[in-house]
Amino acid sequence: MYRQLDAMGAVLIEGVKGCGKTATARQIAASEVLLDSDPSAAMAVDLDPRLVLNGDSPRLLDEWQRAPRIWDAVRRAVDDRRLTGQFVLTGSATPSDDVPRHSGAGRFGIVQMRTMTLAEKQATTPTVSVGGLLAGDTPPPDRSSLEVRDYLHHLAVGGWPGLVGADETTARTFLDGYLDMIIEHDIAEVSGSPRNPRLVGRFLHAYAQLISQPATISTIVRRARDDVDEDTRAPSRYVADPYLDALRRMKIIDEVPAWEPAVRSSKRLTMTPKRQLGDPSLAASLLQMSPARMLTDLETTGFLFESLVGHDLRTYAEAAGASLFHYREHDARLEVDFVLETRDGDWVGIEVKMGESELDKAAASLTRLAERVARQPKALAVITAGSLAYTRDDGVHVVPLGCLGA
Fold first, then answer.
1. Is the pLDDT of residue 88 over 60?
2. What DSSP letter does each residue of 242-306 carry, written as one string?
3. What's the pLDDT tens digit per position in 115-163?
4. pTM score, two decimals?
5. Strand order in 347-353's β-sheet?
6. Where do the domains of the chain lie, and which CATH numbers do they carry?
């Protein structure tokens, strides 16, 4: 964020509600305006957005999306002042495209903030660097202190700053209230029109059932219909589209796009994104998957664990200047859970397996992908819930999630 402030007149911090945007921004802001809790500020914005811009810099404009006119006022102020580091804007939702505003190109830097990783929660001591994998470094042998039950706990509690150190009962109460607020109130506010909370809840539940899978929206809608009786309403595709748009703008949904590499064959690739939520605990809560229940449904738990890996990988990758993708061929003959790629085209293939019984299969998938792609990978790795980090004879790295960091 400091790099962005040094280079741009304003920085926009986006992220799911509760991930710590305001607290983080306050660490660097010299003055602030809280648009969600200061009635006088809201009145001033209605009169003239420029009235709330005066103050020591960087000036924090918290929950700016509640007064979208601020965007253009900040853009103009940046142009007039011709100085970097003037404003920090935070928001839990992106205003609708129906709200007219000028491009922020050249004035705004954007920081995507997510809930905390295992390393940020100090639940682990990382020894394997995602940046190192992208550079082609061989990770050192190591042993993770985390066991399977620890990962299940973190799936249930999530990466919410307010839940660091909390028990699972406290987390369940928090997440139930969090999801109720989204379903009953927030989605209608963000979408700008009333929404049926029961249909929103069914859509989110069906979405969670297909977590970590490249499912189409039609498939999610069919799953929502399958979950209700014939006489009970279920969301249609027409109804689901506004839900999806609002949930994306609220960062509740945080999908992993499909990778389009230069391949040596004419394989058709699936372009459907892999479905993920802003924090893996949201999916666990929607599915009512406590750690005890996770042990009785290991198939679903495997998808939840993959979601946890994807969440942390994405954060580490972005810190290293890379993006997160998934790879799947149209005929499903080959799919790889995650691919990290830098702007220079360097890439790392990642498979996720909770246990070690399918390591050979995972390594074979990674090797086949490397054979298909014209540019050779910097590394191939399988991320597990096991204890040992090492490099196999075929060059594929085995890395416990508890050993992974930026």
1. yes
2. HHHHHHHHTTSB--BPBP---BSS---B--PPBP-BSSHHHHHHHTT--HHHHTT-HHHHHHHHH
3. 999 999 999 989 999 999 999 999 999 999 999 999 999 999 999 999 9
4. 0.92
5. 142-143, 388-391, 397-400, 379-384, 347-353, 335-342, 322-328
6. 2-112 (3.40.50), 128-405 (no CATH)
